Amino acid sequence: MRAGRGVAAALVALLVAGAAAAQTTPSTPPRGGGGGRASGSSGGSGGVSVPLPEPGAIARRWQRPDRELVVVAPTAADARPALDALTGRDYTISRRARLAALGLELAVLQGPRRADLAADAAALAPLHPAVSLGPNLRFALQASEASAQPASERRERAASQRRAESIGTEAERSPSGRVTSPRFLVGAGPPDPACGRGLRLGMLDLLPNPNDGALRRAALETQRIVPWGQRLADDDHGTAVAALLVGQGDDERLAGLLPGASLAAAGIFGRTRRGEPETSTEWIALGLDWVLARGAEVVNLSFGGPPDAVLERVVAAALATGAVLVAAAGNEGPDAAPLYPAALDGVLAVTAVDLALAPWPEASRGPHVALSAPGVDVFTAGGRYRSGTSYAAPFATAALALERARAGPDAAARTLAAARDLGPPGRDPIFGAGLVQLAGACTR
Description:
Blueprint: H1 2-15, H2 59-62, E1 68-73, H3 76-87, E2 92-99, E3 104-110, H4 117-124, E4 132-135, E5 138-141, E6 144-145, H5 151-164, E7 200-205, E8 219-224, H6 236-246, E9 262-267, E10 270-271, E11 277-280, H7 281-293, E12 298-301, E13 303-304, H8 309-320, E14 324-328, E15 348-353, E16 369-374, E17 378-380, E18 384-387, H9 389-407, H10 411-418
Parallel strand pairs: 7-9, 7-12, 8-9, 12-14, 14-15, 15-16
Antiparallel strand pairs: 1-3, 1-4, 2-3, 5-11, 5-13, 6-18, 10-11, 17-18
Helix pairs in contact: 6-9, 7-8, 9-10
C-alpha cells in the first residue's frame, strides 16, 4: 500500500526533524489503507502528487503535551504483539476501545518521560504490519470569524460584494449590503422543510447546541466524545455547521440545506488551557465510529491537521463501509502544505469561494481540492457572519447526500461532474471541479 507508506513517512518527517523517515506497511480493510494523497487525488480520481511540508516544519504545532501513542488494528489479537513491544519499552496502556462500526481495535498508550513517540512508532510499524500506530496528534477547526481586515483586504472584499450584485437578485442582503443567503449560488432554491427526508448525515465538530433556535425542530442526535473531566470547546462552530445542514426555524436565512434529514453530531473538540478548540487522533476515531454506528451515510469533517498514519487507517475503514467523507480543505493559505483528512484519497476536500465566486484568500489549494462552495461571510446560527472552508463543506455534504440517495456508489463522480466549472477549464488546484450544485434537488 504505497499511499499508506507515504503518509506514515510524512508523519515521521514532521515529528523527527532531521531524522530519516521510516516507512510503514499497515494491513488495511477491504478497500485499502486509505491512500494518503502523497500519491493520489480527491475521490480517487487523480494520481497527482501533493507536496509535503519540510521536515519538522509543523511538528510542534501538531504535537500534544500528553505523550500518547495510538494503535489501531482489526482485532485485539492483531494488536497484542505491538502492544507487548510497546509495554516492553515502558509504555503503559491507558485506554482501549472496540470501534465496531469501523471494524478496528483502538488502544492509547502513555509514553515514558523521554520517549520519542514518532521514532518508536516508525521502528515498530514494519515489525507489526497488522497495526497502524503513531502519536495522538492535534487537529484544528478550519474557520474564522468576520473581523476587522487590513485596508487592502477590505477594498478587495467590497469589490467582491459589488461583483456579487451582478449574479442575481434572489440573494438576501443584510443592511450592510452583504449577501447573506448563498443558497441560490448552488441552486438550492427557497428552503423546503421536507428536503432531505430519510437521509442520514453525520458530523465531527464541536458539540452543537440542540436548544439553539435553528436546531430545536431538527432531527439532531448528539454525543459527547471528549471525556468527562476535560473541558468542552464552546458550541458555536458546531451549532453553525449543524444549522447549515439541518437547521429549521422562522428565519429563512438560517434554514438548513437538508432540514428534513437526520444528523448525528459527535462532539470531538475540547479546549486547551488557552481556551482554543482542539481535537485529537483518538477522538476523531471514536467520533467517526459513533456517527457510522448511528447510520450516517455522508459525514462532514470541518477540521484539519498533519499527516497521520492512524487517521489514514481510520478513514480507510470508514470508506470501506460505503460512507462518503467530506472535509474542509483548510484555511492555511494558497502556499501551505495540504491538511488531513482532506488530503487523504477518497475524501472530498472542499474549498471556499465568496458570493462573486472568487476564491477565499485564506483557503488551502492543491490537486486534492475536489469542490468549491460558498464559505465567505456566511450568515449562520447565532446571527454572525463566518468564513472558512468549514462553512463551505456542508454545501458539498448536502449535495453528496442527495446524490447518494439517487446514484449510490456513483454519488461522488456525479457530484463532481455536475459542478459548475470555475477558473481555468477543467479541474484545477484552486476550485477543484468547480462550484457544487444542488439545482432541482428540493423545490417547493
